[in-house]
Amino acid sequence: MVGAGVAPSREEIGEVEAFLRLKEIPRLGDRGIRELVERHGTGAVALRALGVQGELLGGAPTARRAEEWAHRGLEVLPQTSPRYPPRLLELEDPPPLLFLKGREELLARPAVAVVGARRATEVGRRMAGALAGLLARAGVTVISGLAMGIDAAAHRGALEAGGDTLAVLGAGVDVHYPRVHASLSREIARGGLLVSEFLPDEPPLPHHFPRRNRIIAALARAVVVVEAGERSGALITVDHALDLGRHVLAVPGSVESPQARGTNALLRDGASVLPYPRAVLEELAEVVRAAAGWRKEEGGAGEDHGLAALPAVPAGLEPLWAALAPEPRSLDQVAGLARLSPGDALSGLAALELGGWALPCPGMRFRRA
Predict the structure, then answer these.
(1) H or E element: which one contains 62?
(2) DSSP string over 258-315
């Protein structure tokens, strides 16, 4: 369907209507819909090929719903649309319809998913925000699932950095879930993009969330896991990412932390390690270069933003930053130069490390990033 507030053509409405009716056929499923459409070329022809079965389907007048969605500013992309993301077609069961609220063009731009535990630690949330901020400032779209914990921190980190973020939902795009994220959801709809395979007013159901994870993995060029327990839903995203040949990266955690058991297992199994935030730009240099290419095509500065300057060091940490040097210095040296106790210096260095301004070195030493 066409842009916000513009009436779709009869052909577009017919295709959306066909896919809605195909979705209502019991036991057909997304994989079956794909096979039918590949055989017949369009959803409308596939529906006609089903004969009486398709005509007997009930439900609301879908053509009227499709027009209403367009006038409310929602985009609906059927699988046969030329604007449907090709990366989703790499899935065996791509969503027959995509409902969008926001900037549709983000579907085509280089993107990285940042995912993790709902019950995240404060350190994990800060790490997710720092990673998302670095990626967003490099022009990479940050994808996550708008859940509590790591997901929300990733979306906020991208927005606070002035970058782009895309949320894949486990409910309809008109449903705020969780409710505490209503304002975040509205902010993403204004400046980023909300994506769902579910009807706009469809409520969140438990089985929706594992399904939406395949969309997160497919749209992303890489998946970064910040914190994940042994049974975390983020690991479902990783499974899809590996099946699709996506790059998987993980942040190591304490062996005593339940939230790190999943991520540490990923590292044991071969995921790329992210020992500090800025490493994400080094590991994903190709994605960063692709994002710079998009900026150049769209009339931006066009330079490689992967190693762009970080924003100003937070207030209160400037003395500690000034005490660092390109070569490693001991904790006592840094504390002495900054006129801080070793304990206060260590706490401040942890904050600088999470923000990408400092790097830890062997022997309790630190240097500028």
Answers:
(1) helix 62-71
(2) GGGHHHHHHHHTTPEE-SSTTHHHHHTHHHHHHHHHHHHHTTS--S--TTPPPPPPPT
Looking at residue 306, what is its pLDDT? 44
Beta-strand pair 97-102/193-196: antiparallel
Please check whether residue 202 is in contact with residue 170, taking contact to mean a CB–CB distance below 8 angstroms.
no
Q: Return the closest-CA partner of residue 214 out of 238, 250, 195.
A: 238
Secondary structure class of 331 (helix, strand, coil): helix
Name the strand (E) or helix (H) holding 81. none
Q: Is the pTM of this model over 0.85?
A: no
- C-alpha gyration radius of the chain: 23
DSSP annotation of 180: G
Q: How much helix, strand and coil, in percent to the nearest 5, is found in the chain? A: 50, 15, 40
**pLDDT tens digits, 46-80:** 988 887 444 444 444 565 777 788 778 799 999 99
pLDDT of residue 57: 45
Q: Is the dihedral of CA 337, 338, 339, 340 positive or negative?
A: negative
* 3-state secondary structure (DSSP) of residue 53: helix
Q: How is residue 188 written in tokens?
A: 């993403």
Give yes or no for a contact between 291 and 109, defined as CB atoms under 8 angstroms apart: yes
Q: Is 163 helix (H, G, I), strand (E, B) or coil?
A: coil
Host H or E run for residue 247: strand 247-250
Q: What span, in angstroms and rounded, lies between the C-alpha atoms of 236 and 229?
A: 12
326-332's contacts with Cβ under 8 Å and 24+ in sequence apart are 326/367, 326/368, 327/367, 328/361, 328/363, 328/365, 328/366, 328/367, 329/365, 329/366, 329/367, 330/363, 330/364, 330/365, 331/364, 331/365, 331/366
Q: Which residues, 6+ apart, have CB-to-CB distance to 210 below 8 Å?
A: 233, 236
Q: Please spell the DSSP secondary structure of 85-154, one letter per residue.
A: -GGGGGSSS--SEEEEEE-GGGGGS-EEEEE--SS--HHHHHHHHHHHHHHHHTTPEEEE---TTHHHHH
3-state secondary structure of 316: coil
For the chain, counts of helices (H) and of strands (E): 16, 12
Q: What is the dihedral of CA 306, 311, 312, 315, to 10 degrees?
A: -120
CB atoms within 10 A of CB 180: 10
